[in-house]
Amino acid sequence: LVTKNFYKYWWNQELSTLKENSIAAHKAWTEAGSPHSGDLFEEKKFAKSKYKNKVRQQKSAEQIIVCTMHF
Fold this sequence. Notes:
It is built from two helices and no strands. The chain is mainly α and 71 residues long. The longest helix has 31 residues, at 39-69.
């Protein structure tokens, strides 16, 4: 039996919220015709960047914890 966060054990509520915000910003951007500049474009870019950076940060932090536990 595999639990929900078995493969992404580092996942947390903050990441879920950032992902939802990124998806909502992307949807608003596509509904506006996918402009390559302007407020919607900047909002989409910022939301995606914030989400991706937090994912990298969480993975890295968990990797450090796992590595130190082996010693």
